[in-house]
Specification:
This protein is of the alpha/beta class. Helix content is 34%, strand content 17%. An 8-stranded mixed β-sheet has the order 7-6-10-4-11-14-5-15, with helices on both faces. Strands 16-17-18-19 form a 4-stranded antiparallel β-sheet, covered by helices on one side. A 3-stranded antiparallel β-sheet has the order 1-2-3. The chain is globular, with a radius of gyration of 29 Å.
């Protein structure tokens, strides 16, 4: 018995091997199970991210893209984005992977908030936004060597700051206005048509709503451009006068020009407003937008007729028939930009007449803006007011054989921006700034002036951090994504997208699978498409990849 018991306590070599095999197998099983679970959770996140991109109602917030599993990413990343059932994206923050809809880049959000705190308000500023229409960046005296007569706006820049590379993310009136109110790309706010103001569904994330909720008295004058102004918008503002589309309006006292109406209504608002509340007033001029149904196009006030009478308005080197022939093959005479060229610029005499009247409308807005701001000064509140001047989109003055806007060339996407801010660091007063600022930055800048945070769904930044005199924690953007959806038909206004940088620009026409690449350092008029130059192959590869990443972030 003792021996038997002793033998049972001393296992045989065969028994020992079996036990080791069992332990080894168990350990491997546990490891495999853990990896399987990790893979399953990753797969769930990937599927959730894919679902996010196919669901237009979600509002994902920009984040660092850890990996994009895109077929043929070097050749055509955008195609996979359009055919988004084939898109798989994983987004990483810290050490965790998230579906895109849940991402917040908290480190960058904190950096933005910290930069804004450097301009901490003693009290909420009043806000005056002067907003022009179809007015490009160099149609200012300060930006045109004095050709355009805008003495007041030039002086406003001397008392504030002028941004030389301010751009729009979509160059058309109504989309730009939805972007103004939401601080979002059209990919996010979805308001692609004037009769479909999708951003109304998220009105509580717009700056007019947020200012009113915080106690501001909010007024709007002039062009709104979206439907339901009486049923939806009017009850949600404190004071409003909606009108646009004509340069002259009948009244019992006789006709009045729309710019004079803007001036009259703005001064009435400033005089009648409650004096115990901060206010925000958006004055949205209709001019110098053409009156499209009138063959004269630009209908000016009598007192402006003497302006520019002895001037000869120069045309750009790209305002030629040869430049038109260099456009992509699908630009034909029914293209909207080309049709409007024939309305305005198809002969030297017509060009001179149209451009002089166009500049006269601009000079009229300059005079009206001066009188509006003078009212602030007379009330003793100019130094308690953030004054901003900008416009909704740029404008072709016959460049590329085109008129109007829509397309991602420089004349169409660059717009003026002047800010006069009582908080501005004294060394920034009277300077120019060449950072890429965008119209998605307007809403965050306005909210910050009111002492309010930027909602997570907004995609811009507080521009006041650029003139605080302090170093930014988060670097400012060095490029941006441009987009314009098809309007009417793709042979009339084709969809366009672009990656815009200071030195280079990559353009993609998704309906036609056509690309363009421009070296803006040596070709500022964008006449030489370098897409097939082998010496630009590496640059093109980098531009395509960057384009893809910024397109995802715009969603």
């Amino acid at each position: 018995m003792t021996l038997a018991r002793s033998s049972s306590l001393s296992p045989s070599p065969r028994s020992d091997v079996s036990r080791q095999y069992f332990l080894s197998f168990s350990l491997k099983f546990i490891v495999v199970a853990c990896f399987s679970l990790q893979f399953l959770f990753s797969l769930i996140h990937i599927l959730a991210a894919s679902k996010t991109f196919s669901n237009a109602s979600n509002f994902p917030v920009a984040a660092q893209i850890e990996s994009c599993d895109l077929e043929l990413i070097e050749e055509r990343p955008w195609r996979v984005l359009i055919e988004n059932k084939r898109l798989r994206v994983t987004v990483k923050q810290g050490n965790e992977v998230f579906p895109v809809e849940s991402i917040r880049n908290e480190r960058n959000d904190e950096a933005d908030r910290d930069d804004s705190k450097k301009l901490k308000n003693k009290k909420p500023l009043n806000i005056l936004l002067l907003y022009g229409d179809d007015w490009r960046h160099d149609s200012l005296g300060a930006a045109s060597n004095g050709l355009v007569k805008t003495p007041f706006l030039d002086n406003l820049a001397a008392e504030g700051i002028r941004f030389t590379h301010n751009c729009v993310t979509t160059s058309v009136c109504w989309i730009s206005r939805a972007t103004l109110y939401t601080g979002q790309y059209v990919s996010r706010h979805k308001s692609t048509e004037p009769m479909k103001p999708e951003f109304y569904k998220h009105w509580d994330k717009t700056f007019p709503y947020l200012l009113r909720e915080s106690g501001y008295y909010f007024g709007h004058i002039g062009k709104w451009h979206f439907k339901d102004t009486e049923d939806f918008v009017q009850p949600r503002l404190d004071w409003q006068r909606f009108y646009f589309g004509s340069h002259w309006y009948p009244t019992p006292e006789g006709e009045i020009h729309s710019t004079k109406m803007n001036e009259r209504d703005a001064i009435q608002f400033l005089q009648d407003r409650p004096k115990d509340k901060p206010f925000c007033l958006t004055v949205c001029f209709f001019t110098p937008h053409a009156e499209d149904d009138d063959p004269r196009q630009y209908l000016v006030q009598n007192e402006s007729l003497s302006l520019y009478i002895n001037e000869t308005i120069p045309s750009a080197p790209s305002a030629t028939e040869d430049a038109w022939k260099r456009m992509p093959y699908f630009f034909i005479d029914i293209n909207e930009g080309r049709s409007r060229f024939f309305w305005r610029f198809d002969s030297p005499d017509k060009y001179q007449t149209m451009m002089k009247n166009y500049y006269r409308l601009i000079s009229e807005i300059d005079s009206t803006s001066e009188r509006i701001v003078k009212e602030l000064e007379d009330q003793g509140i100019l130094d308690e007011t953030l004054v901003m001047f900008t416009t909704d989109n740029g404008y072709f003055h016959a460049e590329h054989g085109l008129a109007d806007k829509f397309y991602p060339y420089q004349e169409s996407i660059r717009v003026p921006l002047i800010i006069r801010d009582p908080r501005m660091h004294k060394e920034k007063v009277g300077t120019i700034d060449d950072h890429f600022t965008l119209n998605i930055d307007l809403a965050p800048t306005i909210l910050a002036a009111a002492g309010l945070p930027t909602p997570g769904v907004m995609q811009g930044r507080d521009m006041a951090t650029l003139y605080s005199g302090k170093e930014l924690r988060k670097p400012w953007r060095k490029d941006f994504f441009y987009e314009h959806p098809v309007h009417l038909r793709d042979d009339i206004i084709p969809a366009s997208e672009a990656l815009v940088q200071k030195d280079y620009k990559y353009v993609f026409w998704p309906n036609y699978d056509v690309e363009e690449l421009f070296d803006l350092r040596n070709d500022k008029y964008e006449l030489q498409n370098l897409i097939n130059r082998t010496s630009y192959k590496d640059l093109l590869h980098r531009m395509r990849n960057r384009f893809n990443k910024l397109k995802v972030r715009a969603l």
